[in-house]
UniProtKB/TrEMBL annotation:
Residues 1-28 form a coiled coil. It comes from the Bacteria. This is SnoaL-like domain-containing protein. Residues 18-139 form the SnoaL-like domain. The keyword S-adenosyl-L-methionine does not apply. CDD domains: NTF2_like (cd00531). It comes from Nocardioides massiliensis. Keywords: Coiled coil.
Amino acid sequence: MTDLAARLDALEHRLQLAEDKLAITQLIASYGPLVDAGRADEVGQLWTEDGEYDVEGWAMRSRADIHAMVLSDAHQRLITNGSVHFLGPVWVEVAGDEAKAVCDSLLVLNGEEGWRVARGSVHRFQLVRDGGAWRIKHRISRQLDGSQSSRDLLPL
């Protein structure tokens, strides 16, 4: 392999890594606006068919479960009163067709007293390349309540 070919291979690898990280960042950033809009189909499509979402009090084990969560009475009450699911900057690590990501989030709700932060959480994602697109295989969310178990989800 010539020096030029090696440099082009390295550049191609770096570009693919940057594109993968950007795609994953955009996928995770899309969750908040989609879930606040109640767009169950699009929220479900962020996950693989058998994707899991483990959030305190709710274990979803498929894309259909996640779709149903968005349409649930509990979620519909949140969004009809006004909600903002804000996921902060994402730390992403890619290894071939698999990746992991971590971010914090705030859930801001509108109520009689105005807007208030209802929850601060950490989210750990396992993602896979599925049909040419990145999708969530597993997501675990825990309230950042000071517990060691929630802090263990944060990157080192």
